[in-house]
Amino acid sequence: MKIATWNVNSINARMHAVIEWLKTTNPDVVCLQEIKTIDETFPRLEIETLGYNIETHGQKSYNGVAILSKYPIEEVKTKLPGDDNDEQSRYIEAIIAGPKKLFRVASIYLPNGNPVFDENGIFTKKYEYKLNWMRRLKDHAAILLNDELPTVLAGDYNVIPGNKDVYDYKSWIGDAAFRKETHFHWRSLLNLGLTEAFEQMDNRPGQYTFWDYQRGAWQNNHGIRIDHILLSAQAADTIIDLVIDKNVRDGIKPSDHVPVIGSFDL
Length: 266
Prior knowledge:
The chain is of the alpha+beta class. The chain has helices at residues 15-25, 44-48, 125-144, 180-190, 197-201, 233-236, and strands at residues 2-7, 29-33, 53-57, 65-69, 73-77, 91-97, 102-109, 151-156, 195-196, 210-211, 223-224, 227-231, 239-244, 260-264. It is built from six helices and 14 strands.
């Protein structure tokens, strides 16, 4: 069972790359982020032709998440609890009826949070929103873990976990993805009992999932690792392999993120 996460940075702009990747990699379940389209204009037909069921939680021009699955999708939820006024499309979860058992997946697009400070040296609303979103995610994840269903929380977390996950950590000190407050909430999430798939299966330094379009970041390997797959204990027990598919970043009009693919005995 291949479960992947990929921030495509606009599904309609990257359809050439998405279709080619789906054909060559043949993942069973895909969590997409930043689809940047409303549900009605998501290119369903082209993807359904490849054998995928599709659930989306879109938003015009910004954000947006989706789940693609070759197996039936059940019990879809498109709202992260904890803030009824949050209108940003950043979360979708579902139960997948796999060939062996049911399991849960969620596609997550955690807020960026920059800039951190305003002109008065106070946290901006954007950074406060990021931290509050992380608190909400932790609270919801704690509830999900209670039912002991294998759970995969995958997506663009906009969190650089440590110094080894960025090409030059000193240049990122103070960024919303690399601040102590962000790391505190990241650790709190993991401390629920979640396993970071990369840490379990690889954990080498210098393995990145994002390279900016500017300043030759890709050509010089100036990357960061912000796309993560977090696993409940029941899912972590079944993981077989994890791959960061860097080749996708070298394509025509690529996303600035690349897919992360976990293989599971599910």
